[in-house]
Specification:
The complex is a heterodimer of chains A (about 230) and B (about 160). Chain A has eight helices and no strands. With about 230 residues, chain A is an all-alpha fold. The relative contact order of chain A is 0.16. Chain B is mainly α and about 160 residues long. The longest helix of chain B is centred in the middle third of the chain and has 32 residues. The chains are: A mainly alpha (about 230), B mainly alpha (about 160).
């Protein structure tokens, strides 16, 4: 009975989605907002990557909400798992020679790649979220290699708090400068150069540091919980 | 125009996205292992994101990024759905991380991840808290595993 209900639900969902999809003309999508964005974004925000222009320039407050959701999820996960001092637990075996040397070798590379992707977010596909995940990986792989070590949660939360606060401060700066909240400030610069697009790279740097610190702390908390079982 | 255009390619791509979403939904509805349910939610999200991206795809259009030597703002895809999918992916990661940590906690407390066993254990706990005698008759139906356990005769 239960299975039949699930099957009926799945069939209904399929029909519903296909009914929606059949109205779409594949490959000839209508563009209403996108057309204006593509036409105006280069001069209004100075960003060569228009997705960045939408994420940080036009819909910056959505990104702030997104950061808030991510923060709430990370905080809730930390709350559910709880902080545990790992001194009293038994020593975990380390991850083996390959993982340890690999972690040492990859740490600087991941750091550079992550920062590169964050800082070029307004020019190339990439940005704070993607680069932040790579930064988190850079700090988490050593934790996998040496399970006893752990990360300094206090330092992580300081980085996270400062990054989040600077995002809001940049937003308030726009408000104070006579514009709207999170309005891009500073000089637009030359399109396509590293130092351009005003405050958008600074915002993405804040996003990247915040996402990186949050994810690294979250992954470390989960790993510590598993190790202590 | 590309030769690839036509109803078939679109239907195949849309079909793949819809199939991902439906497989995820079936997994959420029928899986009995909590980790599999979390993975099914991830599949469902992937299908939804793919559907959103595909709905904004245009033939002969490039990514909405200005690269020197390939100017031409007119032939770019819509950047708005891409920004939305970026947001959705990030929120999905947060939800999955929270779900996984909840699953870890459940495993720590109940020592199982099977939802049927979990239901039985939780019902026992609720009965014990409420001071209700557990059903002991040999004819009593097995309450765990029967959704909507109507046979449960709790007296207040």
């Amino acid at each position: 009975m239960y299975r039949v209900t699930s099957l009926l639900f799945a069939v209904g969902l399929t029909v519903l989605l296909f009914a929606l999809v059949s109205h779409l003309d594949f490959g000839h999508a209508p563009m209403v907002v996108g057309e204006s964005v593509n036409r105006l974004a280069a001069e209004q925000t100075g960003a060569a990557n228009f997705v960045t222009a939408v994420v940080l320039g036009y819909r910056g407050i959505d990104t702030l909400g997104e950061l808030a959701i991510l923060f709430a999820a990370a905080t809730a996960a930390g709350l559910v798992l709880g902080h545990k001092r790992s001194e009293n637990s038994r020593r975990e075996a380390d991850g083996g020679a390959i993982l340890i040397y690999g972690a040492d070798l990859f740490f600087p590379l991941l750091l550079v790649v992550g920062l590169y992707i964050i800082l070029h977010g307004h020019l190339t596909p990439g940005g704070g979220f993607q680069g932040g995940v790579i930064l988190a990986a850079a700090f988490f792989v050593p934790v996998l290699a040496r399970p006893g070590g752990g990360l300094n949660h206090r330092a992580l939360s300081i980085v996270e708090g400062l990054a989040g606060a600077s995002f809001i401060v940049i937003g308030l700066w726009g408000l104070w400068g006579g514009g709207e909240f999170l309005q891009p400030m500073l000089d637009k610069g030359t399109l396509g150069e590293l130092v351009s697009a005003g405050t958008l790279p600074l915002l993405y740097l804040a996003v990247g540091l915040k996402v990186g610190a949050e994810l690294a702390g979250l992954l470390t908390t989960i790993a510590e919980t598993e190790a202590n079982e | 125009m590309m030769d690839l255009s036509g109803p078939d390619l679109g239907m195949v791509l849309y079909g793949g996205a819809v199939a991902l979403a439906v497989i995820g939904a079936i997994g959420v509805a029928t899986a009995t292992h909590l980790v599999r349910i979390v993975l099914a939610i991830a599949l469902l999200e992937a299908g939804a994101n793919l559907l959103l991206l595909l709905s904004a795809y245009r033939f002969d259009a490039i990514a909405p990024i200005i690269v020197t030597g390939r100017e031409g703002v007119d032939s770019m895809v819509d950047p708005v759905p891409q920004a939305m999918v970026l947001t959705a992916i990030v929120i999905g990661v947060g939800i999955q991380a929270f779900a996984m940590s909840t699953v870890l906690k459940v495993h720590k407390v109940y020592a199982t991840l099977d939802v049927r066993v979990l239901l039985k254990k939780m019902e026992q706990e609720i009965d014990a808290q409420a001071g209700v005698e557990p059903v002991s008759s040999p004819q009593a139906p097995d309450r765990a595993g029967i959704p909507g356990a109507a046979a449960k005769n709790v007296e207040f």
